[in-house]
Each structure stands twice: as structure tokens, then as C-alpha cells.
Amino acid sequence: MGKIVIAIDGYSGCGKSSTAKAVAKELGYTYIDSGAMYRAATLHFLDNYLASSNPQDVSKGLKSLEIEFHPNPDTGKQETYLNGVNVESKIRSMRVSEKVSEIAKIKEIRKELVAQQQRLGKSKGVVMDGRDIGSVVFPDAELKIFMTADLETRAYRRQQEMLEKGDMIDLDDIQQNLAERDRIDSSRSESPLIQVEDAVEIDTSNLSFVEQVAQIVYLAKQKINPREDYASNHR
Question: Smallest Cα–Cα separation from 22: which of 77, 73, 71, 69?
């Protein structure tokens, strides 16, 4: 059975990452967390007091930027390493969330991370989520998904995610952060967030996690083996 590339794009807080991870697990594919890569780059620039508006700082930052993914030996979950250090919890902080869109719009940073992502996807059998996966990173992906949900639902989900990590953030603050990220991501000149023509839109506002994963797995199996009838299983 052949393998495909699955590109999942969409707004912040739609559940892209958790959904992509579950889809990859279901299909036996590799999950590439592009969002974590941009968050790690953001943490790198913040911790080293490098300004994304300064070309010299950007060049300096990229020279010392190495991002890897390794499974946690206890949980089996993939975690993000920045220059050899596990930063999985640090990159999910509000401090990073408030700056990641600013870092992600810098052309040189995007170019470097996109090159790394494309190398990871050369052998296919990968699932990647982000904002420009179907349009820039993998424009030839066999399956492209665009996930969306209303702002209130997204803010609530993000708050629950942070509560699980022990962080209590006001819902209004999260909603404002998501709205601002939507604005920056959709209007930036470098690889803006767009829904490409051949992407399947999935609104997750009223879908359970299991339902949204099942929809994408069903679509993927149709692409992997078009002659197989998955209709009965999907129902």
C-alpha cells in the first residue's frame, strides 16, 4: 500500500496538532509538528534577546538554531528539543504564544524551517499541520485539510489545554491572543494562512475529537486506496 503526505492547515486553537498526531498514529505515519518548530524558534530568539526586526540578529539566530523531535521514553509522545534541550513545556507558554506569529512572518526564518520540513517529508507517510503546509511546504500533498472553528470554541479549548499544564489564563486574554494571531497569520506577506483550492474544509466547532480524526483518516484511506469501499466503516 502506497503512502501519502497529509497537509493540515487552519487557525490557532482548532485542534490541528492533536488531530494530526492522532491521524498519524492511526495510519502508522510520522507526525511533523511545524507549529512546535516555529515556537522553538521563537523561544530561541526570546531567550537570546535577538530581535526579529534586525537582519543581523536573524542571521545570528539561524546559525545556532537546531530543532529536533524525540519520543519521551516514559509516555512515547514526541517532544521538541532546541539545541539539544527538551523545551516541550516552555514552547507552550503564553510568552511564546504572544510572539510566535511575529517570528513566523520573517522570510529567512520561514525559509530555513520549510527546508527542514521538506526534507522530513521526502519519503512520504507523513502528517504535518501548520498554516502554510498545503500552500508552501507540501503543495503537492495528496490530501490537504483546512480546519476551522469559531473563536469562542477555540479560546475555550486552548484554555483547557493550558489548565492541564497547570496554567490558569483568563478566557478573554486567550481570545484576544487568538484573534490577533488570526490577523497576523492571514495578512502577513510571507506565506500567509490561506485555504488552498484543493483543500477539504472541516469545521470542528461542533465535532468531537474522535469525529474530526475519523473524518481525516477516512479521507486519507480513500486517497491511499481509491478502489477500497470505506463507506460502511465510516458510517
Answer: 77
Report the C-alpha gap between 157 and 159 in whole angstroms: 5
User: Which one-letter amino acid corresponds to residue 223?
Assistant: K
38-87 tens-digit pLDDT: 999 999 999 999 999 999 999 999 999 999 888 888 887 888 999 999 99
This prediction has a pTM of 0.76
Is the Cα dihedral 143, 149, 153, 156 positive or negative?
A: positive
CA diameter of the chain: 58
149 φ, ψ (degrees, to nearest 5): -170, 160
Where residue 229 falls (left for φ over 0; alpha for ψ -120 to 50; beta otherwise) is beta
Of 234, 209, 223, nearest to 17 (Cα)? 209
Evaluate if residue 115 carries a pLDDT over 80: yes
The Cα–Cα gap between 121 and 125 comes to 8
